[in-house]
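User: Can you write out an input/output pair for a complex, sequences first and structure second?

Assistant: Here is one pair. Inputs:
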Amino acid sequence: MKKKSVLAAAMAGAMCMGLLAGCGGKGGDTADGNTFKIGTIGPLTGDNAIYGNAVANGAQIAVDEINALGGDIQLSLKAEDDVAAADTAVNAYNTLKDWGMQVLVGPTTSGSSIAVASEANADRMFMLTPSGSSADITEGKDNVFQVCFTDPNQGTAAADYISTNMPDSKIAIIYQNDIDYSQGIRNTFAAEAEEKGLEIVSEGTFTADTATDFSVQLTAAQAAGADLLFLPIYYQEASVILNQAKTMGFAPTVFGVDGMDGILTLPGFDTSLAEGVMLLTPFSADAEDEKTQNFVSEYQDRFGEIPNQFAADAYDAVYIVYEGLKAAGCTADMSYEDICEALVGQITTMSFDGLTGADMTWEATGEVSKAPMAVVIKDGAYVLP
Amino acid sequence: MTEFLNYLISGISLGSVYAIIALGYTMVYGIAKMLNFAHGDVIMVGGYVSFCAVFYLDLPGWLATILAIIVCTVLGVVIEGLAYKPLRQAGTLAVLITAIGVSYFLQNAAQLIWGTSTKSYASVMPGNLSLGGVTIPYISILTIAACLIIMVVLTQFINRSKLGKAMRACSEDKGAAQLMGIHVNRTISMTFAIGSALAAIAGVLLCSSYTTLNPTTGSMPGIKAFTAAVFGGIGSIPGAFLGGILLGVIESMAKAYLSSALANSIVFAVLIIVLLVRPAGLLGKYVPEKV
């Protein structure tokens, strides 16, 4: 009996080796002809599926447009699901590498991006995250870049905006203290608010486990006389807060950041609750320029909804990679390591005009420099205030 | 002072939801002597059924609630018949693991049917009542009232009705009850039916107060309500009520005056202390093990 199991284990081991060898061989292949293989990772299912699907859809539109140009650079895109979990994202990254990915446009969320960035840095895979906003993603990694602005950047920008436009506000903050995203924005917001002399009258926190009942935090904010509620959180929780604030008869000005983006497409959400909500976002689907208009109508035709910021970030990311590849003279038979070196050299010297900002530039640190823009929700759409 | 009253009201309202869920736990435990860990997920199903009734079929809130009650009652009886009844003679551990399995099954089935993305639940009773500086959401009043009515009706039912008597008999000794001509299986099915109907009501009230709905909506309130049932003394109906209300108020006060991040830790710390002092819970009967 014992002998048999040893034999079985040995055979299983041999089979695994065979499989691994097979994988290695496949991974070494590069794309044929002039087609570059671009991978993207995001939550295509799960709580944050709105983000991952927006990124995959936005990137797909850009890829199809570029391919339709018929130039020397053709792109092939593959999206993998990570349900916004860091360990799943690393698996997804490895799956994409096996497929022969040469450039990574992803992951979508910050936690996943931090995990994958270390892998991409060790492998020398060029990584451009459309929407991962934590500063930890790019820190110390020379081949990792961001399209969206960083969390610290958002906190500072929000405080600056409020101090310019609503300097006398009594501010209440409700944030989620068990995720980097929310905590990071809150910290820089509080620091900048102090510098600008803004008054923060109340702060409430919650965690993933207590993200359903905000009546206590809202009561505290109301009792402290807050007239502006800063919510550096994601839209699901924000929708609950808006609902409960209305039920309590508390009506402050609500100010969100890019995590608020998506609230209007939440199934069952009464969009009138979001009337007057302000948020910082680099992208407005109502912008008049031709580029945005084309993108929005194409997105609506294909996917039946108005694209959010994440879709625009991903669309830009693909174009940034495309411009970089073109300028550096990359060819599709190059290895991902060589492409990485070429793109790193290129992105730090180029300037890019996209949907999510004009004249974007990148420092060697990986952070993008562009100005965030504030929009206000009116009649169920974003408009400039 | 008005703040304190506001916190108290939100605590009692939260506690009432816990109490309604805890009643379901405690009834099933008291009579079938099993922990039905799938109870929290029946709440979630109740939430989804009423959401769909309002959102897709445009039914009024009360009709959606009735629909949810019917679906959950049937679901509860079916779960009991398929998953728990065959294990009637098996050890308690096997039943417990099966209950956990049913819980995962329901969560994943909900993911398949309704998708994983969060839905925003429209309260069945929006608006609020303002008394001086104290604002009381109508849904809180409805929740507290529903909880009180359910508690009273259930106590009367258990103490007065024939079926209630049969339930108490099963709870004391299944074998003897059977010898006295009580249909034990039917009585247990009935208990699940009542427990699941309560879960549906809890689902509607929970989602109305806390307006989001996803496949794991039921798990945390389920665990908290189980805690409440143990806190008050599992098996005891007034105990479940008391445990639920106390848990809600402690959670709310801990959030308001101590730390909103540590609220859950404080709630569970209180539970540990209570169980150290009174192992059977606040109103539970301590039954020494016969050897």
